[in-house]
Specification:
Elements: H1 2-17, H2 38-63, H3 71-89, H4 93-101, H5 108-132
Helix pairs in contact: 2-3, 2-5, 4-5
């Protein structure tokens, strides 16, 4: 019993020492890659907004009984998708950039194919951790 209590105490201290989010400086503790990923984070934010817009679009399409999707409807849904995207990226922008920079190839055209998808995955996983209290 003594060993279990001793092993639980350092875990609590370890979690209290690690900063979480950009404001706390978490991005300073993340191992970075050779190249900056700022452009890919912006592209990932746009992609994330579009994907969240699709999530909002499906129920609207069901209510419209499969009517044609207009450009105006897609634009409105993308702007609606920007709301959860900004909530997801809030206080995680630099952390996401630091994580994704490790996986860049150095060839911009090649990285543009996969890096925004990595940004979406990293930001949404970070958002899940943020909202779950970790």
């Amino acid at each position: 019993m003594r060993g279990a209590a001793a092993s639980a105490a350092p875990a609590a201290d370890w979690q209290s020492v690690i900063p979480v989010g950009d404001k706390a400086g978490e991005h300073l503790n993340i191992e970075r890659g050779e190249y900056s990923a700022w452009l890919y984070v912006v592209a990932g934010l746009c992609l994330n907004s579009f994907l969240w817009g699709l999530v909002f679009l499906f129920p609207v399409q069901a209510l419209r009984h499969g009517a044609e999707v207009t450009d105006r409807l897609m634009i409105v849904m993308s702007f609606l998708g920007a709301i959860p995207s900004f909530i997801t990226f809030h206080d995680r922008w630099r952390c996401t950039e630091a994580h994704v920079s490790k996986y860049l190839s150095g060839v911009m055209n090649l990285s543009m194919i996969y890096a925004p998808w990595l940004v979406v995955a990293c930001a949404n996983l970070g958002g899940l951790k943020k909202f779950s209290g970790r």
